[in-house]
Amino acid sequence: MKIEKNKVVGLSYELFVDDGEAGMEFFESVPKEEPFYFLFGAGQVFPMMEAALEGREVGYKFEIFIDFENGYGDYDETKKVIIAKSKFKEDGKKQKDLLKIGNVIPMQDDEGQHYRGEILKVDYKGVHMDFNPPLAGFDLLFKGEIVAIRDADPEEIEHGHVHGPGGHQH
Ligand SMILES: [Zn+2]
């Protein structure tokens, strides 16, 4: 079976990242036993990754280099913002445990868009948060192997994501 639109693809890989200063450094690995699954052609992974995998079969070994502009984009200083502490209250209660440096917090703006922000510091001005993706500004190198390909079921195609192990559970 070849990779094409509406196939569920499982990958194992090691990801190396380079911010242009220290050279390529190991970032994370996804083992064969617990692959990363995604729905091909649904915009779930970088277009350059899909282009490199299209038409390939299980067992294909890849090295895919994605420069930061085609990856998570450049680091954007304007995505560092200060948010009033009162915004973090829930049911009128302060959430002390939440406001810790390094915590990554899912948030929503007025239009309902979801963002993840990392807390950089908390001071009298409020909560300083960074909404850049953790790998913004990094070139990416994926070294890995295709470990699974199957047909997506109609519900997965409708939802635009993978169900079952390694996918959405609902
Ligand atoms: Zn679903």
The portion of residues assigned to helices is under 10%
The number of E-state strands comes to: 9
- The assigned CATH architecture of the largest domain is Roll
Instruction: Provide the gyration radius in Å.
Output: 19 Å
Distance between the termini: 27 Å
Largest sheet data: 5 strands, antiparallel
Tell me, rounded to a whole number, the average pLDDT: 92
Secondary-structure element order, N to C: EEEHEEEEEEH
What is the CATH fold-level name of the largest domain?
A: Chitinase A, domain 3
Portion in beta strands: 35-45%
How many H/I helices?
2
User: How many domains comprise the coordinates?
Assistant: 2
Give an overview of the whole structure.
This protein has about 170 residues and is mainly β. It has two domains: about 5-75 and about 135-160, Chitinase A, domain 3 (Roll), CATH 3.10.50.40; about 75-130, Beta Barrel (Thrombin, subunit H). The protein contains two helices and nine strands; from the N terminus they run E-E-E-H-E-E-E-E-E-E-H. It has helices at about 45-55, 155-160, and strands spanning about 5-20, 25-30, 35-40, 60-65, 80-85, 105-110, 115-125, 125-130, 140-150. Strands 1, 2, 3, 4 and 9 form a five-stranded antiparallel beta sheet that branches. Strand 6 (about 105-110) and strand 7 form a beta hairpin. It is globular. It binds zinc ion (ZN). Zinc ion (ZN) binds near residues 161, 163, 168 and 170.
